[in-house]
Amino acid sequence: MATEQEKIKDLVKERYGARAERVINLAPVEHDHSNDSNCGCSTDSACCGIEDNDHAMQLYSEGQLAGLPAESVAASAGCGNPTALAGLQAGERVLDLGSGGGIDCFLASQQVGPTGQVTGLDMTPSMLELARANKAKLGIENVEFVQGEMEKMPIPDSSVDVIISNCVVCLSPDKDAVFSESFRVLSPGGRIHLSDVMALTDEGPSVSSPEDWVSCTAGAEHVDVYRDRLVRAGFTDIEFTSEQADYMKDRAERPATNTAGYKVVAHKP
To answer: Which of 141, 162, 216, 246 is most buried, by CB atoms within 10 Å?
Structure first.
């Protein structure tokens, strides 16, 4: 019998896999506005059809989106723009947790250049298929996509300089494992730059069903809890900065969700 954690992971995989399939098949979506979880962390209007780029336009500049495959833009389901302030340098090795259709990997690849390397990690086969197709369209060589879970990464020790992630850690039912693994794969002096959804109260959101996990709500934790997990994993110099996109504002105003977007930076000594 599946555990609660396994049920959550399976539902996340199912929903984000369906999102990728809709983009791959260029299918518009009839969205049920009574259930925000149908399209993950994104806004109601950005619902997985090939022309749906409203969500991405709230998070990325026109310059960043220019030249990217429409499919990578349409598949975007994040809550921030982790590459914008990550200060990526030429030659750095970057790991993107929950890389989806590849949008943040492609932006990172431009910053680290041909001497750098970007690895996208995702547990959903159809998202990996979409990301690899997008990579082929761009014809870039310094990006690869790997299947795996962020709680148990198929990545060697101390092999990464920077970890980025966009509204994905909040989906994990085992965040301690995510941060422990992140610390393991980072090289000494490495850092994480995460965009994530966090609870605005100590109690957290009052919803807790697997469906609410998929919508990036039930798994959101207060900043203090998040920080404690990072400290236990070994991280130092931890910073939190509000990163509130317009579509997130209604979440903060609803008692049941009461969440907000944050940028998280932490370092491995």
So the answer is: 216
